[in-house]
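Attaching the record inline, Q. Sequence:
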Amino acid sequence: MIKIVEKEPYESYDHFNTRDCLMYPNYMIKDGKEYFVVNRTSNPSWQENYDFNRIIEELKNNNGVYTRFYGFYNRPTELLSKIIERKHSFQYPSDKIEKLFDSSLVPNSDISDFHGNLNEVSAAFKYRIYDMEYVEKLKMVVNHIINKDWEKATVSLDDTKSYENNLLENEQSINKDVEPDICD
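Structure, as predicted:
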């Protein structure tokens, strides 16, 4: 079961709108551990960049395994499946695995952002992932894609989808009768 909590706001400079605004940090509490999710802001025009309610709903639906900030595909494996099917490539400089997976958001935490774009089509994406074994499996698929080893990428993706499905099924069976406690 997860719980979303909003902490005390802090003032920050909004570079997009060139003014100060209040940032409201939101955290997910899962298995007694706190994970950063996203800052909600007092600036309504900036707030539209992230659909806060959708992000929280996705976390509720998969019990805090991942959420999508932007991109066409709901699951990271759906995106990777299309990349393999179409033999697309990641855009430079995000064609390096260390650029596609960023764990620097909160040092020493179990959070990784998987983000980038594709060369062949405009398909920017960003997922925040809260399961590091899942991240490692995704990295294996991405590495095969970068190396254009489509057969290995397909096999690795199948393994990752199986892990993802087991993870989500286990999370849903644990919480099937319990509605996550979401605080505003």
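Confidence is low (pLDDT under 50) at residues 175-184. Residues 1-61 form one domain.

More tomorrow.
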